Amino acid sequence: MIISEYFEKVWRPNTDQYKYSGWALLDKVGVDDKVLDVGCGYNLFKQHLGQRLTGIDPYNDAADHRVSIEDWESADQYDVIFCLGSINFGS
Fold first, then answer.
1. For the chain, what is the total number of helices (H) and then of strands (E)?
2. What pTM was estimated for this model as a whole?
3. Would you say 44 and 26 are in contact if contact means Cβ atoms under 8 Å apart?
4. What does DSSP assign to residue 89?
5. Contact 35, 65 (CB under 8 A)
6. Residue 55's closest CA among 73, 41, 70, 71?
7. DSSP string, 53-77
8. Three-class SS of residue 24?
9. Cβ neighbours of residue 48 closer than 8 Å, sequence gap 6 or more
10. Which helix or strand (DSSP H or E) is residue 35 part of?
11. Is 12 helix (H, G, I), strand (E, B) or coil?
12. pLDDT digit string (tens) for 5-60?
């Protein structure tokens, strides 16, 4: 199975199982912080952070932008960047 098939058809979020990351990260984000979620998957943090969060993911249509980090271009600046298990698949 190639990586795109895995993330499009098999992978499911497991955010609930993490004590120090996962949902606990919401407590670390300031009320005015802009957040970039790299490899956002189903973009679950969007419901909590709203328009302050931009989710990018090359394989999931729930992302705000379906694009890889290598191809992501933005003039925006971010205060917080989530990379929860996404960049360990790169070379």
1. 2, 3
2. 0.85
3. no
4. G
5. no
6. 41
7. EEEE-SS-TTSSB---TTT---S--
8. helix
9. 26
10. strand 35-38
11. coil
12. 777 777 777 787 778 788 999 999 999 999 999 999 999 999 999 999 999 999 99
